[in-house]
Amino acid sequence: MVTVKFGKRFKGISDRIRRLPKYVPDAIEMIAKNDAARLIEIFHDGIKDNEFDVPALRPRTIAKKAASGFEKPMSPLYGAGDDKRPNSYSNMMRIFKKGNRFVVAPSKRAYHWKVGPSGEKMKLSDLFLIHEYGCVIENGFGKGTFIRIPARPMLRLSYEKLM
Question: What is the band of 141 on the pLDDT scale with cuts at 50, 70, 90?
Fold first, then answer.
């Protein structure tokens, strides 16, 4: 009769395999969260440094931004800066945990500038939809003019760069 005696190395390997299911979900969660944080970083830097090929601003808009003292008037979607503005467009993306996954989505907080004739504040999530997909505003500024905002899909382009 033959008997098999397993050594310490085998016992160590089998113990590590038994513990493996406890480590793997944590590792996968950490990788997913790091990817989400990297997507937000690419989104922010892409807006700040005008890295993506999106429709350029009109010369009149650039002149207005320069006259207002904006540091990067040529960069679409980058206004007065973002150092201390958590509610700016370039800083709007947040990581939300939904069940067992992480989701990158715009904040529901109010945009830091007042918009509209009555001075109400728009939600960042609404502003995101306008700029990501584009829109046409009828009766702009209450003067009957049409304002066309071209799509500047920064989140999609950021995701493509991440992949």
Answer: low
CB 148 within 8 A of CB 138: no
pLDDT score for 117: 63
Residue 41 clears pLDDT 90, i.e. is over it: yes
For residues 34 and 102, what is the distance between their CA atoms, to the nearest angstrom? 10
Tell me the two tokens of residue 38. Answer: 């990297």
Alpha-carbon distance 130 to 154, whole Å?
A: 12
C-alpha distances in Å from residue 83, one per residue of 32, 80, 89? 26, 9, 12
Distance CA(104)–CA(34), nearest Å, equals 11
The pLDDT of residue 114 is: 66
Length of the chain: 163
